[in-house]
Amino acid sequence: MATGVAAAMAEAGLTHGGFYAHFEHKQALLEDAIGVAFDEAEWFLLDGSLAELSGDAWLLAATRRYLSVNHRDAPERGCALPTLSPEVAREGEGPARVLAERVERMIVRFAERLGGPDARARAVAALACWVGGLVLARSVTDPARVEEVLAA
Prior knowledge:
By secondary structure, the chain is an all-alpha fold. The protein has a single domain (26-151), classed as Tetracycline Repressor, domain 2 (Orthogonal Bundle), CATH 1.10.357. The chain has helices spanning 5-11, 16-22, 26-47, 55-66, 69-72, 81-88, 93-114, 119-139, 143-151. The radius of gyration is 17 Å and the shape is globular. The protein starts with a helix and ends with a helix. 18% of the residues are buried.
């Protein structure tokens, strides 16, 4: 993350020293942010209004929710994986470990929701297709092509 602590704190209207009252270092903030982002993603895809769904009904509803124009157009409020993954790889062992743990937790929860002997493979495939599809949809500017990518 190229943003320095001083710049981030100034943007928040706080002092540089105040940061260290809450976090040991910049990576600790990123680790916490990853956890919060994944908590929100799990609520969005598993717990909120999709909590009662399972199997293919859940997969279809979650896919439609994830691969929507609203999600595509709101990277600041959407899934952290498409935006944070490339950055986290450069931020050291701690953030990378937290990201890997949270991805694994999400895959496990998806597999539980899907059920069946191939649930884990389907969960991994869904997550990979969703994240890749969202990245691709965000790289397309023509609204018709965006719809095409999200529908595919």
